From TrEMBL:
Cross-referenced InterPro entries: DHMBA_Reg_Transcription_Factor (IPR053175)
Taxonomic source organism: Setomelanomma holmii
UniProt lineage: Eukaryota, Fungi, Dikarya, Ascomycota, Pezizomycotina
Protein's recorded name: Uncharacterized protein
Length: 410
């Protein structure tokens, strides 16, 4: 094997080496002073001075992962540098495994699991490689056992959702069980919906030849999830319904997933033409189209058809958009691109936005998603991706857990 082939074999993923400035690239002058790096935007300072027990293993793990994130912005690496980073990465995984299985535990283990999931997701180019989803499952398991962690921004609501599903409660009982209302409850409903959809879509993929009974059970669960998330707009103040709010796009993406799955399962049970004539199909189609239009309109705001250029004539990154917001936009656009019933022209426009996210924000995963065929609707990836990236996005938006008076979305 020559040095070029060896380089390709140990590079994290093919497009990573060309994804310059993935996390820390320069921004326009009007954006100075904002928090733009993924690491700083999400992770709280490591309490190295207080490290003891398993933290002696987990804190070096976090340092290795932070270095791996920084490596993404390098345009070229030597073979030796890749070998060293891979060795360190494997060591980090062993350290995390030790910290998780240790009786003493570590408050930073959830942080490491989240970082592993985010890194693997960003560099993933193979839809069949679910390493990042495995890490996400580990992160959720740690939240289930440890509760909210201060080392990852705003996990309290997601932790509530995990606990809520463990108890198997009815979402209509939420107002009586929570100390927050309004946007906080809306976020909790979305997290509950995503976790339920994640479980449902994962089970669906295991069914090689689904029976009608299986699909009927699926539709029953989907119908309940769909009804639950329809409660969300009434819980939000008008300001939270701004078209540029990333959480609103997240809501639209969830609506696309549930409505698309309901439509596809309806066709499976009733055959294509009879189901298309039903009022339910017409209503679901309108829901999907409205959500797709909303996501595309917002993406056009950040990624206009006419690309802006920097002083050197190169495409500049969208002003005011952080990396975490770009990742949320990526998964929302992917949901829109594989939505049931949209035409080829719409799909191509949204895929063009995914290419822009991949190129201008330097996210390899977006380039991979842009090439996904219409028939390969991996809704399980959509809900897993939104679950992963929405944790940091919420720290900067108006959808907080602060109690507010309920007003409608107008």
């Amino acid at each position: 094997m020559d040095s070029q082939e060896e380089y390709k074999s140990i590079a994290p993923r093919g497009l990573v080496s060309s994804a310059a400035n993935c996390l820390t690239g320069p921004r326009c002058s009007s954006c100075e002073g904002r928090n733009h790096t993924l690491i700083a935007n999400v992770l709280q300072p490591t309490r190295s001075a207080e490290a003891d027990g398993t933290d002696h293993a987990i804190l070096p793990t976090i340092a290795i992962l932070e270095a791996s994130f920084r490596d993404l912005h390098e345009t070229a690496h030597t073979v030796e540098a890749h070998r060293d980073r891979q060795k360190q990465y494997q060591l980090a995984m062993r350290n995390l495994s030790f910290a998780i299985t240790s009786p003493d535990g570590s408050p930073n283990s959830a942080r490491s699991a989240w970082m592993f999931a985010m890194y693997e997701m960003m560099v993933n180019l193979d839809a069949e490689d679910e390493t990042w989803i495995v890490h996400l499952d580990g992160f959720l398991a740690l939240l289930r056992s440890q509760g909210p962690t201060e080392s990852v921004a705003d996990t309290s609501i997601l932790s509530h959702a995990v606990e809520f599903l463990e108890r198997g409660n009815d979402v209509h009982l939420l107002p009586d069980q929570l100390t927050f209302d309004g946007p906080g409850t809306a976020l909790l409903l979305m997290d509950i919906a995503k976790l339920r959809l994640k479980n449902l879509t994962s089970e669906m993929r295991k069914l090689n030849t689904p029976r009608k009974l299986d699909i009927q059970k699926l539709r029953t669960s989907l119908t309940q999830i769909h009804r639950d998330i329809l409660l969300i707009p009434s819980m939000l103040p008008t300001s939270a319904c701004d078209s540029n709010n990333p959480n609103l796009n997240e809501y639209r993406a969830i609506m696309i997933v549930t409505a698309s799955l309901l439509s596809e399962s309806g066709i499976f049970l009733e055959s294509k033409q009879p189901y298309r004539a039903t009022r339910e199909c017409e209503k679901l189609s309108r829901t999907i189209q409205d959500a797709v239009d909303g996501i595309y309109a917002d993406s056009a705001h950040h990624f206009p058809a006419k690309q802006s250029r920097d002083d050197n004539g190169k495409s500049s990154r969208p002003c005011g958009m952080t990396m975490t917001e770009a990742l949320c936009m990526m998964w929302c656009c992917f949901a829109a691109s594989v939505a049931w019933g949209i035409d080829a022209a719409q799909r191509q426009k949204i895929q063009a936005v995914l290419w822009r996210i991949g190129g201008e924000m330097r996210v390899p995963k977006a380039m991979s998603l842009a090439t996904t065929k219409a028939y390969d609707r991996r809704y399980s990836d959509v809900v897993a991706g939104l679950t992963l990236v929405s944790v940091p996005v919420r720290a900067d938006t108006g959808w907080s857990s602060t109690p507010v008076r309920r007003t409608g979305c107008h």
